[in-house]
Amino acid sequence: MLGEMLGEGRGKITGQRVLPDGKVEVSFQQSNKILGVETTEIGTYTSEMRPDGTLCGEGQGVEMTKDGETAMWKGSGVGRFTRPGAASYRGAIYYQTTSKKQLARLNGVAAVFEYETDENGNTSGKFWEWK
Fold it and tell me: What is the pTM of this model?
């Protein structure tokens, strides 16, 4: 069951490259609002196209508050191309933080996400606690 919305954000793809195994690596940066706190997120994920045309990916990243608190995340998901150069993903992410204040609630939370990219490299995401 979905719990409360933990956050959302918008950003930009900052780099892409094709790896020797055929996977595509994508790096991005977003401005997010998590648990009511403004953060800057940087992340990298790899995706590969499956035989049926869907995408399978996994990644990691970090959220940083203006006060210097951080939360690391790891996640994975499945996606599909929505048009040339644009994709839509759904999946789960897991956080870890040493924060004692603003981001501490993220420890032990499983979150589900929606993540979109467009043909111009714009990104957007929303995520909810999975109870």
Answer: 0.92
